[in-house]
């Protein structure tokens, strides 16, 4: 007897979820649940999901980071796959060496994703080699140097109540660059929200100053 797998797609695109709901159950014998980011945690608590697919074209990266952290902390049997993964942004911090099973760039076709999912179902990871190497290097770097100088600067500015745009203007970089520094700093200091990061900085200010 064939075993039905339980997957969840987290996306704000109704068109994409309808398309995948039409295709994947037939192709992979999968029951596909659909969720908005705000309701994912509640659904995971009651449904036996094995893989969560994040559509990065429709969800804020900070929200994805927080949801990924939730899965890492509370659902050790659930894995994640990222679709519409952006090439132009440094989003390697989303990739977790044990949780993440697949990464598909925004220009990947549905056929390419299907081929990748077939490999995932055979027990393989489908992550571009350049991303996997970078993520592993980042893990090693985090062990030797918890925070970079720029990450410390960004954490310091949080204490003044500055927005990401304010911080970007102060440091003469783009707002997306600030977001990347924040996400990396969040992972390194073990927090998942801005408020937690501020509390951490208040307690560990001697580690944050430069």
From TrEMBL:
Stretches assigned to the HTH luxR-type domain: 140-205
GO biological process: regulation of DNA-templated transcription
Lineage: superkingdom: Bacteria
Cited InterPro entries: Sig_transdc_resp-reg_C-effctor, Tscrpt_reg_LuxR_C, WH-like_DNA-bd_sf
Pfam families: GerE (PF00196)
Gene3D superfamilies: 3.40.50.2300, Winged helix-like DNA-binding domain superfamily/Winged helix DNA-binding domain
CDD domains according to UniProt: LuxR_C_like (cd06170)
SUPFAM superfamilies: C-terminal effector domain of the bipartite response regulators (SSF46894)
MF-aspect GO terms: DNA binding
Keywords: DNA-binding, Transcription, Transcription regulation
Presence of the UniProt keyword Secreted in the record: no
Protein name: DNA-binding response regulator
Organism: Shewanella polaris
């Amino acid at each position: 007897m064939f075993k039905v797998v339980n997957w969840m797609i987290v996306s704000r695109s109704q068109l994409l979820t309808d398309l995948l709901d039409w295709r994947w159950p037939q192709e992979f014998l999968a029951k596909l649940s659909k969720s908005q980011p705000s309701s994912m945690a509640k659904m995971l608590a009651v449904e036996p999901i094995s893989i969560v697919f994040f559509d990065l074209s429709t969800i804020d990266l900070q929200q994805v980071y927080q949801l990924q952290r939730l899965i890492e902390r509370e659902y050790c049997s659930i894995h994640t796959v990222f679709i519409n993964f952006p090439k132009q942004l440094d989003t390697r911090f989303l990739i977790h060496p044990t949780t993440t099973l697949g990464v598909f760039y925004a220009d990947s076709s549905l056929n390419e994703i299907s081929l990748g999912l077939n490999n995932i179902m055979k027990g393989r990871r489908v992550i571009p080699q350049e991303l996997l190497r970078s993520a592993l290097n980042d893990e090693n770097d985090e062990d030797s140097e918890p925070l970079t100088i720029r990450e410390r600067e960004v954490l310091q500015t949080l204490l003044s109540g500055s927005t990401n745009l304010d911080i970007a203007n102060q440091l003469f970089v783009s707002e997306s660059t600030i977001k990347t520094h924040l996400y990396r700093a969040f992972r390194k200091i073990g927090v998942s929200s801005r408020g937690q990061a501020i509390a951490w900085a208040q307690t560990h200010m001697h580690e944050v100053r430069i």
